Amino acid sequence: MHLSSHNWMRQEPIEVTIARLAKLGFKSIEISGEPEKYDPKHVKGLLDDAGMKCWGSVTLMVDKRNMQSADEAKRASSVQYVKDCIQLVSDLDGQILTLVPGTVGKVVPDSTPENEWQWLVEGTKEVYEFAEQKGVRVGIEPLNRFESYLITRAEQALALCAEVGPNLGVVLDAFHINIEESNLYDAIRLVGKDKLVDVHVADNNRMPAGYGDYDWAEFVGVLEEVGYTGALTAEFVAPVDRTPANKYPNALETNLENLDIDEEQLKFIVDHGSSILTEEYYTWLYEQHAKTLLPLVDNVF
Question: Measured between alpha carbons, how far is 26 from 19 in angstroms, rounded to an integer?
Fold first, then answer.
């Protein structure tokens, strides 16, 4: 297993992100699903220079994206978006795509369970076939009930895999499975080596590993038990405390003049309970995360 990271949690140049990750011992990046934002040749060059690789990408399912929507046009555009993310992974010589099928934060269904399941199966089959052609493995990520309503547990993701194709897998997120699974370790065992595509890592409070109540040695031990050898992908989303109880007064960025702020991405971050964090605080979060996990893995990719 090796340390990887998402990069959607802070708005900053990709050059800054890659330099930080490389310095702290991360071996790869699971780049934001924003194909229009990145020049693959440029990003690949940055990764090569830093001695890193692209592990894959993750779909950012903002309001306009929903593969289980009752709106046929929205479903079609969402499928095309996922294909574009797969192409980005392929262009970066990555291996996996984390697929969140529905709009993040949408908890009210559009239609009947039967209709939405059919739409989801149809759309996932289309992106799966494209991914197979590109040599990219897709994993379905269950989210907790406060961020999704259709795929929230490992067994549901496995049911989708069974209807779509043998190479479709599952992505487990430590934060989400701590909420939804009756036994998170049994969920890992249920998915198993053959279906476990990726593992996203944050502590139970969505802070970096080591700042909640997870036993990370046990967590990594169960992953080793099932034979998982992929990435532990950082996806902590630090909350901003606006009260006198705030332990991190340097957390919130107040100087926004030099930041290239994408309003849609900012909304996605805020909807996850965070905000624009200072580089100092964000780097400290990564330092703590790496300090907790690096002693537990071989960190080879």
Answer: 10
CA–CA distance, 274 with 236 (Å, rounded to integer): 10
Quickly tell me which residue has 């998915």 as its tokens. Answer: 191
Contact 67, 119 (CB under 8 A): yes
Helix (H, G, I), strand (E, B) or coil at 148: coil
Q: What is the pLDDT of residues 35-80, one digit of tens each?
A: 999 999 999 999 999 999 999 999 999 999 999 999 999 999 999 9
- Residue 295 is predicted with a pLDDT of 98
Closest of 178, 174, 176, 172 to residue 195, by C-alpha = 172
Contact 134, 90 (CB under 8 A): yes
Which residues sit opposite 201 in a β-bridge? Answer: 234
> Mapping DSSP to helix (H, G, I), strand (E, B) and coil, where does residue 241 land?
coil
Q: Counting beta carbons within 10 angstroms of the beta carbon of residue 239, is it exposed (0 to 12), middle (13 to 18) or buried (19 or more)? A: middle
Phi first, then psi, for residue 46 (nearest 5°) are -60, -45
Helix or strand or coil: residue 169?
strand
Write down the H helix ranges in the chain. Answer: 14-23, 40-50, 72-91, 113-134, 154-164, 174-180, 184-195, 216-226, 263-271, 279-293
Query: What per-residue confidence (pLDDT) applies to 255?
Result: 77
pTM as predicted: 0.96
252 beta partners:
277
Whole-angstrom Cα distance, residue 262 to residue 274? 15
pLDDT at 221: 98
Domains defined along the chain, listed by start? 2-298 (3.20.20.150)
> So what's the pLDDT on residue 258?
62
CB within 8 Å of 201: residues ≥ 6 apart? 173, 174, 209, 232, 233, 234, 235, 236, 289, 293
- Which residues of the chain register pLDDT less than 50? none
pLDDT of residue 259: 66
